[in-house]
Amino acid sequence: MTREVSSPNGAGFFEIRFESIGGLGAHVAGKIIAAAAVLRMNMNGSHFSSYGSEKKGSVVRSFIRLAPADKAIRTSAPIEEPDVVVVFHSGLLAHPATISGMKADGILIYAGHEEDIPEGLSNLPKTAKIIRVDAQRIAFEEKSRENAVLIGTLAEAISLLDRQAVLDALDATFADKSKKVVAANARAFNRGAEEIEIVEGAGQLDGDVPTMQSNPVWGYKSAPIGGVLPTPGNTAHNDLHTSRTGWMPVLNRDDCIDCGMCDMVCPDLCLVWSTHTNEDGKPIVKLDGIDYQYCKGCMRCVETCSTRAMTREAETPGLADSLRVPLFPDLTKAAGDKHA
Known about the structure:
340 residues; alpha/beta; Pyruvate-ferredoxin Oxidoreductase, domain 3; Alpha-Beta Plaits; 2 domains; 7-stranded mixed sheet; two-stranded antiparallel ribbon; 9 helices; 26% helix
């Protein structure tokens, strides 16, 4: 495909922001891109990432700034108005912060299954270029990682990057692992560059996406008194589905013996149990299923299950919704009525 690139911003930098969750390799991918630019393409570059105390499963943002060799980069501020946004998990597109500051002529790349068009894409500018690649499937087939696929897509989508230089940097990063790992990553990289899908007509916004405020809302004069929760919430409204890295546990009810071992190891209490009646008319507690709204895909239930009733399956669009058993049926019904 023809490579395109947005114009550098007013500061003279070309800025890329990776939006991901811990475990998908966004931090390593950012290091590879920056290293390729600095060591192999005669550019100045900087890279750093932002994430919480528990990296795996939590939101990760990785920032890459590139500039000509004669221009110094003297800022380490987060990138708020990126030229390119790369989204490692399509579920993140539901949150406005993922596309905050997206430019009208910017590029968005996201990992998604074929024909997967998340609702969040409608918040993008009409003139933005949207690229989809099935990173999970490619990585699985090539025994690689999603970050290798998305690096290949990025290198192909932006004329500023030399595709071969980026591939060489990827190879060098894993050269001390094994030849099989290097070869698998190279195959995933090349497929990521070649199996690109352009999504047309998804964005509905005129102009740039507004930048979300990154500074604290309150200062020492305007902050509320201590001990007050200005925006109280409840864990019943949590949604952990974007913490899953493309895999989910699936219950085969016929093989389940209701031993409860999965429930003992589940850190998020997302398994749904209820009282049934057995053949003798006596009450018995049985496992009905999983509420995927609260499941972060740690797979401890799969690892613990002695009968293999819990299996690890690839999460395809709509699968979690079709298999979900709500922990709070009344809450789920109220939410459905609200959006009806």
